[in-house]
Specification:
About 85% of the residues lie in helices and about 0% in strands. The chain is an all-alpha fold and about 90 residues long. The protein is elongated and about 70 Å long.
Length: about 90
């Protein structure tokens, strides 16, 4: 346990930031899992409805500094590609 006042403040700040980041990451992972579940279930209409929400959450997390912009772009590209593949397979 820290004895210096500034070190005690840093412990509090670190805990607060950790909790905030954990909450944000959890929200992001939940959104991605919901979208992936719709894709894996073969539900194109549900996945199509979830796509804009998922993109918005990814963009929000980039703004908050939770993930890097390139990672968000990669996730968005993969999500759109999966939806296109699902639509193509269901059209056959």
């Amino acid at each position: 346990m820290p004895n210096i006042k500034s070190a005690k403040k840093r412990v509090d700040t670190t805990k607060r930031n950790y909790d905030r980041n954990k909450s944000n990451k959890s929200e992001l992972h939940t959104a991605l899992k919901k979208y992936d579940a719709a894709i894996n279930a073969g539900d194109a209409s549900k996945a199509e409805a979830l796509l804009p929400e998922t993109f918005a959450i990814l963009d929000e997390k980039v703004t908050k500094g939770i993930i890097h912009k390139n990672k968000a772009d990669r996730k968005k590209a993969t999500a759109a590609k999966n939806l296109d593949t699902l639509k193509a397979n269901s059209a056959k």
